[in-house]
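hiii so um. not sure if this is the right channel but i have a protein structure encoded as tokens and i wanna go backwards to a sequence. like what aa goes where. can anyone help
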């Protein structure tokens, strides 16, 4: 599966909890709160001033490395 900006943070975390470190590296530190886990990656990046494209690229590289 390919990660995209419209997916929620929660979806990605359920796929692999080890992605938490990637999100935190992009300034998203409160991953356990209900709002954060239901928020689209693009919206979360906008709120945190992070680059959504770079985050999605890093997440996809993470999942590709596990194949």
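sure thing!! here u go:
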């Amino acid at each position: 599966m390919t990660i995209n900006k419209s997916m929620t943070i929660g979806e990605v975390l359920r796929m692999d909890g080890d992605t938490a470190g990637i999100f935190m590296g992009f300034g998203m530190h409160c991953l356990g709160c209900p709002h954060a886990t239901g928020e689209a990656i693009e919206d979360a990046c906008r709120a945190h001033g992070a680059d959504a494209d770079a985050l999605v690229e890093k997440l996809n590289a993470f999942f590709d490395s596990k194949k």
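oh and The chain has a mean pLDDT of 93.
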